[in-house]
Amino acid sequence: MAYAFGALFAVQAMTFGYVGVIQGRVTFGRSNGPAAWIGIAFVLYAAAIYWLLGVATGHDLTELPAFGVTPCPVTIFTFGMLLLTIRPIPRLLLIIPILWSLIGGSAAILLHVPQDWVLLVSGIVSAALLTGRDQRLASASSR
Prior knowledge:
The chain is mainly α. The protein is 71% helix and 0% strand. It has five helices and no strands. The radius of gyration is 16 Å and the shape is globular. Keywords: Membrane, Transmembrane, Transmembrane helix. InterPro entries: DUF6064 (IPR045708).
């Protein structure tokens, strides 16, 4: 399964590159809504708190999942960055992160990896916030 998910994450990276860079459909900006604040919290959690929580719960430093290398903190970071966008995003960008959120988050609970529990929550919360925000943006632009 690791090879399959590795391939999926490579597809996800290419999709982000195509949709975000080539098509220019991912736009970041300043927003004061709940999605932006939760996005900032997810980014901070993935980049710093995740590692600190692992240390605090007794994981050996050499065994800690590293940000930028392992999928769980990167997925939380991805959700945070998507919540910091200011235009509707293609739903295609959510498929693989949500899939990993459900699988990795469930495994974290079963394997007692507390720093990954946020993974499950991040997918559910992000999907709800992005759907609601994008529907509001779409209806506002159609007026």
